[in-house]
Amino acid sequence: ALSVHEDAKKDSKSSKTGTECVSLWKLMTSAVKSLDRDDSWWTANIGGGRDVFVGRIAVLSSYLVQSGFVESAADGVQSRVIGASGTDGDPLSVLIDLITTLLLVAGERDTRNGVASEKCAAFASALKESRLMGLPGVLYRLLCIENVSYDRSTPAELSSQLLHIVNQTLRLFNTLALVDKTLLEDCLKDEEMVVMLTHSFAVLLTWLCRMTDMDAMDLLLPRLLVAVGHFAAVSQRAQALTVLGGQHSIVQQLCVLPFRYFSDPALMRLLFPTLIACCFRRTSAVSLLKQELSPKLLSTFITEQSSSIEVQSTTVDTPAFASRFSKKLWPEAILFFESA
């Protein structure tokens, strides 16, 4: 399998090799996803069990970093050599899926696999050096530049191809935040990346809230809310930009989401942490917030979370509040929104 990748590096213009490389990426992705199986399955079917397999994935991740795979793939994405047809089998989709699943392995906190996780962490670091595979730039280009027909005054529909790429990119962003928030913070020190993501998130919010395809909206909007929350929580520059744009600013649009996001407890747990991350310690954001709802709703939400005895599980799409907004800031945030 690794020889296929070496051949692809030597002959990147070969369509046959390119097809084989995509097949290899799919194989890697399937292998990593199989880690979800329980220990008994591993003991019965794989010699050495799950720990041995995780070690092999760690070696694979290390190889992909040392061979320059991440950098060359990022170059391919940015130069559009690796294109996007918006289907499960196109090179960009397979690549994003592979990177995301490998990141999840890198983020394993199982003490049995500590060494393996350290090796996989090098893969996450390579993402930083490649500016997240160049995907923020791809997202910005697709949403804000190439869609020249975009008109804020009339409803618009996103193509299914674009929705597919956006969905995968948001999942990758949220996975990185879950795996290593410090690494995400380092990535967002890149001013250009922050600006591109701000514009992309704002345009995407506008589009999603006007979509007639409710299934697509219900898939993407929650994932976008989580991404915006991570975005504002780890970067003060990003937080500052969420208030720019008047009625089309990120904060303003968050405040006028469909009513169910303010009444359904499950959806409130997605939206309110994002509003808190965008508005905390920022009076300009609170001023926008107060045009639509009382800041006391946010202080009440934090108070309820702090007094809850329910243990919240954390996943990429439904992270616990404590993983989105530092618990040590809760007392200050309660006072801030209570007195706003």
List keywords for this structure.
340 residues; mainly alpha; single chain
Layout of secondary structure:
Layout: H1 2-10, H2 15-33, H3 39-45, H4 49-66, H5 69-78, H6 91-106, H7 114-129, H8 135-145, H9 160-179, H10 181-187, H11 191-208, H12 214-234, H13 236-241, H14 250-255, H15 260-263, H16 265-279, H17 283-290, H18 296-307, H19 321-324, H20 330-339
Helix pairs in contact: 1-2, 2-6, 4-7, 6-7, 6-9, 7-10, 8-9, 8-11, 9-10, 9-12, 11-12, 12-16, 18-20
Report the end-to-end length measured between terminal Cα atoms. 59 Å
Mean pLDDT: 79
**So how many helices?**
20
Major β-sheet annotation = none
Strand segment tally: 0
Work out the count of structural domains: 2
| Unreliable residue stretches | 1-5, 11-17, 109-116
Oligomer: single chain
What's this model, at a glance?
The protein has 340 residues and is mainly α. The chain has two domains: 1-130, no CATH class; 134-340, no CATH class.
Task: Tell me about this structure.
The chain has 340 residues and is mainly alpha-helical. Helices cover 70% and strands 0% of the residues. The protein has 20 helices and no strands. It has helices at 2-10, 15-33, 39-45, 49-66, 69-78, 91-106, 114-129, 135-145, 160-179, 181-187, 191-208, 214-234, 236-241, 250-255, 260-263, 265-279, 283-290, 296-307, 321-324, 330-339.
